[in-house]
Write a structure and sequence with these properties.
Layout (H helix, E strand, L loop, with lengths): L6 E9 L6 E10 L5 E9 H4 L3 H5 L7 H9 L4 E3 L1 H14 L4 E4 L2 H15 L13 E4 H8 L4 H10 L12 H9 L10 H16 L14 H16 L3 H4 L3 E2 L8 E2 L4 H26 L4
Parallel strand pairs: 1-5, 3-4, 5-6
Antiparallel strand pairs: 1-2, 2-3, 7-8
């Protein structure tokens, strides 16, 4: 990450199908690593929000529409055409010299905004962001440096953050619960509200000071499942000294020591290993896996 760089995190809420999502809510925030916010924008897209009433009623979070109406009345959000929303975000990017855009599921949000661009211009223009924009996925970053950690996997199992198929959940809500230690947090599923927690997750990723693949990767959740599988297999595998009878070289003039014939020695070794294992686990959780 470049020094003194401004970050832009965005989020969309969409109507229509998952295969062809159309955003009616676009929120974004521009800030730096010191959490100094310079711009916060929240737009309702007129072409979808007002002109596509049937689509809006079938939106995934249609029950939240009355909240949008109230927030528009209080001027907490702006009702604008997609052209105006796009013009504003591009002007902000130019003003703060931003060429990288972040979102928790960037693959989905980028596709959704492109869909809006094609839909509102009747396919005259296909891309919401200009050529050269870098798209970075917070979800992929978090799966690598936050959610694939043993401490998160234990946290998820303890709190039931597991899918019906047995996969550890990796959504923004569970990730934010982990970094904030607030298991009662509930994601709002409204553009600018979700941006606020996703920005905190992004900063938590940077705080780990590790190399990350930042590109959109829809299968990033598998990284966490792989780590979970490794943890389960480690528990099932017996310690190396119990797999076979190990013989150690003894001092000159003495017989070689066999673990098989020395039960007391085996018990002592097991106690030492377990003590060391749990001590390391505590150190890893409290120090090496810190969240700034």
């Amino acid at each position: 990450m470049r020094k003194n760089e401004y970050l832009l995190v965005l989020d969309t809420e969409t109507a229509n199908s998952v295969q062809y999502p159309l955003p009616y809510d676009l929120g974004y925030k521009i800030f730096n690593r010191k959490r100094e916010v310079v711009e916060t924008r929240s737009f309702c897209i007129y072409e979808i929000f007002c002109e596509e009433k049937d689509l809006m009623q079938s939106a995934y979070y249609a029950e939240k529409l009355p909240q949008y109406y109230e927030e528009l009345k209080r001027k907490q959000r702006k009702l604008v055409r997609l052209y105006t929303a796009r013009k504003t975000i591009l002007e902000d990017m130019k003003k703060y010299k931003i060429d990288r855009v972040y979102a928790y599921n960037m693959g989905f949000d980028r596709r959704a905004l492109n869909n809006d661009q094609k839909y509102t211009t009747k396919n005259k223009y296909k891309f919401f962001f200009p050529h050269g924009t870098e798209f970075r996925c917070i979800w992929n970053m978090a799966c690598q440096v936050l959610l694939a950690r043993p401490s998160y996997i234990k946290f998820a199992l303890q709190n039931g953050y597991v899918s019906p198929k047995g996969n550890i959940l990796t959504n923004a809500e569970c990730c934010y619960r982990y970094i904030s230690k607030d298991t009662n947090f509930v994601e709002a599923h409204k553009g600018i509200d979700d941006v606020n927690i996703e920005a905190e997750i992004l900063l938590a990723c940077f705080a780990q000071h590790k190399k990350m693949d930042t590109k959109p990767y829809s299968a990033c959740w598998r990284l966490v499942q792989k780590k979970h599988k490794e943890m389960r297999e480690r528990v099932k595998t017996p310690p190396f000294f119990l797999k076979k009878d190990l013989t150690f070289a003894a001092a000159p003039g003495r017989k070689k020591a066999s673990l098989k014939n020395n039960k007391k020695f085996v018990i002592i070794i097991i106690e030492k290993v377990l003590t060391f294992y749990f001590k390391c686990d505590i150190i890893n959780t409290s120090k090496r896996e810190r969240i700034d």
